[in-house]
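Appendix B, record 7
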Amino acid sequence: MKNILTVLLLTFLISSCADTDQADRSTQEEPFEQFFNALAEQCGNAYPGGLTLEPPGDEMLTGTELLIVHFRECDDDQLKMPFHIELEEENDWDRSRTWIFTKHDDGLEIRHDHRMPDGSDDEVTMYGGFSVDGGTALRQEFKSIPRSEEMGHFRGWRIEIEPGERYTYGTIRDTTWSWRVDFDLSEPLEELPPAPWGHE
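Structure tokens (predicted):
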């Protein structure tokens, strides 16, 4: 009986130490690292979404098509997340876009990989920017330096994630959303989309 109690006590102590170590690591991480990890936790899953906000005159989306984000390629420092757009009238899909998040020592970087159906680069591709100060574990903002300098005020992207609830991607002007899509993280899709154009 004494041996059993000893084993149970040791198991409890080891478990408690492990939980403490994990909590310590979490509190030592910067908010941008916590945010990156929250994205990485979705790796391998795809989720449905739709258009939430679009400025007048923008005709990229109709608001009725299905959108899919796929947390497809993940390693310790980079995530590649294809963004699939349903083409309702053509009964097909636009698989041209992939969001790329890269973790650096002092923050995150977002790039937009745009491809043609044959896999070649689009005329406009790999644009993006770096995260700015003030981000949290649930929200990061990225500044487009060329657009901000051209317009004279902050232009860039705002990304939010609430694990188990939603993933949001959008553009911002100053502090206001200008374009936004939301994805439901409560339940992943059973069928994963194929690779985006130009990726295997």
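Remarks on this record: The first strand starts at residue 46 and ends at 53. The chain has three helices and eleven strands.
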